[in-house]
Amino acid sequence: MKKLSRQDLYDILVGCTILGTGGGGSLEKGLDLVDKAIQAGKEFVLAGLDEVPDHAMVGVPYMCGAVSPETEEQEMKYRGLPRIGEEPALKALEEMEGYLGEKFYGVISTELGGGNTAVAFYAAAMLGKKIIDADPAGRSVPELQHSTFYINQLPIYPVAVANDFGDVVIVKEVVNDERAEALVRAMAVVSGNSVGVVDHPARMGDIKNAVIPGAISYALEIGRAFREAGENGKDIAAEVAKAGGGCILFKGRVSQYSWDTVDGFTIGDVTITGEGEYAGSTYKIWFKNEHIISWKDGSVDVTVPDLICIIKDEEREPLTNPNYEEGMRVTVFGLPAPKEWRTGEGVKAFGPRHFGFDLEYIPLEEKYGLKA
Questions:
Q1: Kind of pairing between the strands at 45-47 and 168-171
Q2: Are 103 and 69 in contact (CB under 8 A)?
Q3: 313-326, pLDDT tens digit by residue?
Q4: How many CB atoms lie within 10 A of CB 129?
Q5: Cα angle at 321 between 317 and 326, to 5 degrees?
Q6: 3-class SS at 294?
């Protein structure tokens, strides 16, 4: 087991923001959460899968909703409601323990994202639980069924859902993960597009073969590559792409973008006009919370489950949706998806066809001639 330092935590969350492919929550808020726990004297302890007893109970705390900011109209709608002053995912974790009549040994992050991974870390630190070095996505994903739990047919229920206002729901049973997605998303829509959730409570022995091992350590590696590239004046996107076995896809300036909050998701697209060796070309990305598919000069380039990541060149920061500005200089790079997503079941659950695109998934390495 490893006690994570503040630098480790920052590197992990920056790495998670990159691997979040535009989604996964706010890095700034994620960093604030870990600092809040550190200031409270809490520790963050990372445990490998082989260090957790098979009988130990683990759960998956996270936030679910849109990644776009709340509108003034939404703020007015909720203005008269009370606020619990507690992180909803932490509240959901405590409520799940009460429902089960058993304390959790540790937590697993539902995805890699600057906000959502921090939420899991914060809940673990505040309640003295271990952080498991694994996750069921290896990136950020838009829907609850986009998980290796789902493709391994592990039940998602019971599910605890809590919001900022103090509403708490325990879903004892649910037909399937798609129904769980619909139910939890509906609660998010009436809760400022954000709710805290805990799902997949299970014994470690029943869950350890259905997650991606070493996911947090991988995020740490990506975050360190990002930081060290910046410290040494190197091309950040190129160094991070190299660390993750990927490649640069495009460089240019944001020329057009649009987005909206639809049914609890942030949905939109961004167009980038090429510069330098990419001058004369355009690159378009469509996102549903996360980057899902991209086109270069009108032809399909990269699709889920592979990762489409963006760095702001001048600010030297990862870019999250929908925080674009016209004229912003960016570099787009691709990283290969975890092998778990490249199985038949993985592509069926989280490939382009799930999002309505009648396309075959072509691995990044195959398209760009990279070494697998």
A1: unpaired
A2: no
A3: 999 999 999 999 99
A4: 22
A5: 75
A6: strand
